[in-house]
Amino acid sequence: MLFNSIDFAIFLPIVFALYWFITARNLRLQNTLIVVSSLIFYGWWDWRFLSLLLFSAFVDFFVGLALEKEENQTNRKLLLSISLVLNLGLLAFFKYFNFFISNFKSAFSIFGCALDLPSLDLILPVGISFYTFQSLSYGIDVYRRKLEPSRDWIAFLAFVSFFPQLVAGPIERATHLLPQFFAKRIFDYEKAVGGMRLILWGFFKKIVIADNAAYFVNDIFANNANYSGGTLILGAVLFSFQIYCDFSGYSDIAIGLARLFGFELMRNFKYPYFSKNVGEFWQRWHISLSTWFRDYVYLPLGGNRGSLIFRLRNVMIVFLVSGFWHGANWTFIAWGLVNALFFVPLVVMKERKIKTLNQEKLLPEIGDIVRMGFTFILITFAWIFFRAESLSHAFQYIEGIFCSSHFLEIHSKSTFDNSIIPLICYLFFFIVMEWFSRHSEYVIHPYLLQDKWYLTPVRFGLYFFILLVIMLNIKNEASNFIYFQF
Questions:
Q1: pLDDT band at residue 229, thresholds of 50, 70 and 90?
Q2: Residue 156: how many CB atoms within 10 A of its CB?
Q3: Contact 231, 411 (CB under 8 A)
Q4: Would you call 459 exposed, middle or buried from its count of C-beta atoms within 10 A (0-12, 13-18, 19+)?
Q5: In whole angstroms, how far apart are CA 474 and each of 4, 34, 249, 467?
Q6: N or C: which end of the chain has fewer CB within 10 A?
């Protein structure tokens, strides 16, 4: 079920009403309603994949209970291995089976040996990478004795399947989200209003920016050979905004929905395109995944300990695994590699901490503009590999940027007419709103929300304007979120 669909517009009020008016006095009933609602929400795509979700939750629930009772370290490692093998095995089968088979056959064909290996017509379960990692972190934390295992199957299943963030994150840790299912929830008007603001801004990013940018991005990438270098650059820049607004828009909606039900999810984005180096960008982008890889891959490998060579090795592994997590395509591995190469100088110079922009100044300093611009160029270049259909497509696209004639032309009769002007205006509004909110947790937060009577008309005028723009840009058919494919 898509957040931006009619189905969800009917689903949400029903669940909200049942949650606060029927089950509010009984915590277990509330958790049961969340489980039932989440299974309906997820099963809306394909009910057959519910078995995978339930199996993953079942395995980690009972592995957690067994880990609590087991004192022998060898047996504890065996129990954790069961969770890792079963969860990652399912993920590998559905997401990477055909990829490995295809590349295995290609490798042997180089030596003139044709292998007749079968490929399977597999449908990738929506959000399998997200809920697998969320469930895995529970077992690992119980193994590390950072978390007491849950004995309440309903609460645990609600944690694994919680519908606001089930299919595209944030990837929550059990230490943060699971205890909230054991605490009594009381409707908080201020929290709900804050959630609605997040949902409003999330829909603006998805429907107004991402979906409109997708129209131009899809055409440019599909017909890159027909466009000038300037147009190809525009396509790459628009994709940078498309993927950010699409993914962070989902996260805003998810966090806002959770607040409507009395839950707090972790923040997933911190205005990443205002970063002044690539290291800072990765501290601000998809935070739940970046911190997951830090805690469960990078630090176990040794983290920053050891020689420079070992530190660089650890960084390279994390970025390559992160790229592979995104999909069974060499383009994602190349994307991870390119980001790793951009990250290497920062490891050598040890400049990875976030350097906050001056809060007192309305506009950034020239040096900040240069650093933010250079970082954006690097990240946008890497996004070309992420968006391309294949490595050859990515290299053709990059070659077109530097080799096309009429470099400064950014139009074509078929695509670039006056229809791009509204998108440029929306992007300008979006960037301004994010810039003035850069020191706040979320957009539409501090400056227009103070309890001063003269700001009330401005505040509601802004809400009405954003809602109107969203309504004007709604398409006949709801579009998927990009990260659903991961």
A1: confident
A2: 24
A3: yes
A4: middle
A5: 9, 29, 15, 11
A6: N
Residue 254 has pLDDT above 70, yes or no: yes
Q: Where are the alpha helices (DSSP H) in 18-109?
A: 27-43, 50-69, 73-109
pLDDT of 218 > 90? The answer is: yes
Write the DSSP symbol of residue 18: I
Contacts of 362 (CB under 8 A, 6+ apart): none
Share the mean pLDDT of the chain: 86
pTM for the whole structure: 0.90
User: What tokens does 432 get?
Assistant: 């301004």
Q: Which residues contact 429 (CB under 8 A, 6 or more apart)?
A: none
Residue 189, token pair as written in the block? 């008007």
Gap between the terminal Cα atoms of the chain: 16
Residue 211 tokens, joined: 């979906």
Q: What is the pLDDT of residues 282-296, one digit of tens each?
A: 999 999 999 999 999
Query: Based on the number of CB atoms within 10 Å of its own CB, is 6 exposed (0-12), middle (13-18) or buried (19 or more)?
Result: exposed
Confidence bin at 17 (pLDDT 50/70/90): very high
CA distances from 416 to 419, 421, 464 (A): 7, 9, 30
Residue 1 predicted with pLDDT over 60: yes
In which residue are the tokens 């709604």 written? 474
Element (H, E) at 385: helix 366-387
446: preceding bond cis by omega (within 30 degrees): no
Q: Under a CB-based contact definition with an 8 Å cutoff, are residues 184 and 25 in contact?
A: no
Handedness of CA 473, 478, 480, 481 (dihedral sign): positive
Whether 286 is catalytic is no
Q: Is the dihedral of CA 70, 75, 78, 80 positive or negative?
A: positive
Determine which one of 326, 393, 439, 445 is catalytic. 326
Spatial contact of 290 and 275, defined as CB atoms under 8 Å apart: no
Strand, helix or coil at 406? coil
Pair 263, 177: CB distance under 8 Å: yes
Calpha distance 297→303 (Å, rounded) = 9
Neighbouring C-alpha atoms within 13 Å toward the C-beta of 223: 13
Q: Cis ω on the peptide bond leading into residue 170 (within 30° of 0)?
A: yes
Angle at 453 between CA 452 and CA 459, to 5 degrees: 85
Residue 209: pLDDT band (50, 70, 90) is very high
